[in-house]
Design a protein that fits this description.
The protein has 212 residues and is α/β, with parallel strands linked by helices. 32% of the residues lie in helices and 25% in strands. α2 packs across α3.
């Protein structure tokens, strides 16, 4: 039996909100969690205080899934063909950013935001993609262990809820240590809550963005 792969094209979706003011503005690009959609991440990005000064872009994963609750959503990764999926996902994100920059007055400041499973995609976009980030915001998920952290990530906001059972304090501390050992500037944040976005997180995220 021969196993052969062939490259094909698929359609991806992203949502974009323009900044409240005219003229060049920075770009905040976000990645949702497992089983979520671009709309979920879009609401999160737009709720961050100060994000109205940014182009806010939520990118939807290419792989459709059905959650245990029976809801339709999307996923950034599975255990099969990981290398091909990573390459395709990074190429996809590069293309979204290039298209937005070609159509709108986006300045050089780029921030990636990832929630839950989306933290892996945000980390890969920052470290493997063509567009260098100034900031990287990670909420409730790991930095993929195979990645070598570096200053290509920009300044990092590493956050978790204090009652988050999916992203434990131990994993949070391990990721913080990796960043510190790699001399990556990092703001470590733990807010009261679980594996969900709440007002405490949004406040801390807004303060981080304000420090761009």
């Amino acid at each position: 039996m021969e196993v052969t792969t062939i490259q094909t094209s698929v359609r991806g979706k992203y949502l974009l909100r323009l900044p409240a003011h005219s003229g060049p503005a920075p770009l905040l690009a976000g990645f949702h969690g497992y089983g979520q959609t671009a709309e979920d991440e879009f609401r999160l990005l737009c709720a961050i205080p100060g994000s109205e000064r940014w182009f806010c872009c939520a990118i939807e994963a290419l792989h459709s899934v059905c959650t245990t609750a029976g809801n339709g959503g999307a996923s950034w990764m599975s255990s099969r063909d990981r290398e091909h999926q990573i390459e395709a996902n990074v190429h996809y994100v590069d293309g979204v950013i290039e298209r937005i920059r070609a159509l709108y007055a986006v300045n050089a400041t780029l921030c990636f935001h990832g929630y839950s499973q989306g933290t892996g995609m945000a980390s890969r976009a920052a470290l493997l993609g063509r567009h260098r980030s100034k900031q990287l915001m990670l909420l409730g998920g790991d930095i993929p262990p195979e990645l070598s952290v570096s200053d290509r990530m920009g300044r990092v906001h590493l956050a978790r809820g204090s009652r988050d059972r999916l992203y434990s304090r131990e994993r949070h501390e391990r990721d913080a240590a990796r960043l510190q050992e790699g001399a990556v500037p990092v703001v470590v944040s733990e807010f009261l809550g679980g594996h969900r976005v709440n007002e405490a997180y949004l406040k801390a995220a807004g303060e981080f963005l304000e420090g761009e």
